[in-house]
Amino acid sequence: MTLSDTEAQARTLGGYDDASRLRQVHDRDWVLDRVTGEPGVLIDLGSGIGQLLETALHRHPTLRLAVGLERSEHRLAEAGERLRRHGGRVVLHRADLTGPAPLPYRADVITMTSVLHWLYPVEHRVLAWVREHLAPDGTFLLTTYHPARDRHGLGGEDDIVRAALGVLGIPPESVPGLLEDRDVLPIATRTRPADELQALLGEFFTVEESWEREAVVTVQDAAQYEHFHAATFGDYYASVLEPGLRAEFFRTVGRVASERQRREGRVSSMPVRLWKLTARPGSTA
Ligand SMILES: C[S@@+](CC[C@H](N)C(=O)[O-])C[C@H]1O[C@@H](n2cnc3c(N)ncnc32)[C@H](O)[C@@H]1O
């Protein structure tokens, strides 16, 4: 079967450089503005295509080592290209953050932006890893998204997907069951409410400060959101459908989003929190 352009894009999570301008990119300077002093080692978890590492290297000439951990081979390859000119100041590791192996670094700064929900429900493993890999005065800067959720635990992107599946003939009330049958956890369940997350973070870290802003996504047209969805979520939701329906699913997600844009002046809006964390006294390795 020939894949549509979007299906092919979703398989490799391609096009993120462009797509991330809609939402994720705004975390980058927000986080890096909180880096103080003269850091020597920074680790970015779920480093994607290396955008945060690139900006950090540019903003902090004192960095002798910028380390990225990422699961996607395609993203690592793109990051490698992007960061090549920094030579030995950059190390990229392929890693699954649901069970990260120890590495021989102690970092002044560890960052993780728009990633933690993908590690649900075993986030404690990466949190323990971070605690062990922070230098004694190191800081962990983390961003987390908190869309409102309904009684089924759906919200945020799940709502757009539910509406798109409705257009394809799947009744909205059967969507929670369909996701569950296919082992697709709703994103709004993965993200956890901010107070629940705070309790989890408190097991490992002291919350020095936190800030919240509203992430508002707007689009110019349906194609732009179709592209964003494929680059951000890949096949995650599309996998609940037969392969023959997936190209139409991606197009419909784009149309649903642009219809919301027309009706409400935006596609979505949700709080994002930035946490500044330090290892709890006595708990560093
Ligand atoms: C939304 S992107 C965020 C990328 C980047 N941090 C940013 O803010 O633009 C989520 C990233 O986490 C990575 N990721 C998801 N689950 C992962 C896992 N279990 N281990 C390592 N990386 C993972 C994805 O491949 C993707 O690059």
Description:
It is built from 12 helices and 7 strands. It is α/β, with parallel strands linked by helices and 285 residues long. It has one domain: Vaccinia Virus protein VP39 (Rossmann fold). The protein has a 7-stranded mixed sheet with strand order 3-2-1-4-5-7-6, sandwiched between helices. Helix 11 packs across helix 12 (246-264). It starts with a helix and ends in a 6-residue tail after the last strand. It binds S-adenosylmethionine. Residues 20, 24, 27, 46, 48, 51, 70-72, 75, 95-98, 113-115, 118-119, 232 line the site of S-adenosylmethionine. S-adenosylmethionine binds next to loops.
Q: Using only CA atoms, what is the Rg? A: 19 Å
How are the strands of the largest sheet arranged? 3-2-1-4-5-7-6
CATH topology: Rossmann fold
**Largest beta-sheet details:** 7 strands, mixed
Number of helices: 12
Q: Can you tell me the CATH architecture?
A: 3-Layer(aba) Sandwich
Order of helices and strands: HHHEHEHEEHEHHHHEHHE
Which residues sit in consecutive blocks of at least 5 with pLDDT less than 50? none
Helix content: 25-40%
